[in-house]
User: What shape does this take?
Amino acid sequence: EAQVTQNPRYLITVTGKKLTVTCSQNMNHEYMSWYRQDPGLGLRQIYYSMNVEVTDKGDVPEGYKVSRKEKRNFPLILESPSPNQTSLYFCASRTGQSNQPQHFGDGTRLSIL
Amino acid sequence: AQSVTQLDSQVPVFEEAPVELRCNYSSSVSVYLFWYVQYPNQGLQLLLKYLSGSTLVKGINGFEAEFNKSQTSFHLRKPSVHISDTAEYFCALNTGGFKTIFGAGTRLFVKA
Assistant: This one.
């Protein structure tokens, strides 16, 4: 089954404690992306990757890091989380063609106290 | 700069009534337009997409949308909704690059 898998689904942590949210896709997609969803703001793009070792900033990259060492994986790293990063996070992937829709994971709800 | 505006944050409607969820966009170049649906505790799923050609696009679950270039709109419609259509709906655009712009979302509540 074609899918995007995120882990963990839920996480409560404290300010400053480094965390990583993993994302893996099994569709051999070139393009992967991270979004955060906040009430009234829709989805905002954090980072995206066009292929292995190729990443770029989205609209809200501050406080986040990513890496793309393998085609299937695109982890999101919060080196020093702060309360304003409490949000619902989604990973998505698609082919290299921009006219194709994205496939989304089920989301990771992060609470940073 | 591109933008997407969903004109209604919440839309309550009775079961079996028709519904329209409105989406306006702004772009100086050609666009690809998408509607996604998000059910509770799930990720987004594609409802339908407009790439080019016919301006009336049919999607899954009986939804359709009409692309109107002159009014820069891409409204989503369904002639008769079900309780199971209760969800949040997102309009999104891509202009051929690496970024997709999403609207703020519209919560559809279907009442019995």
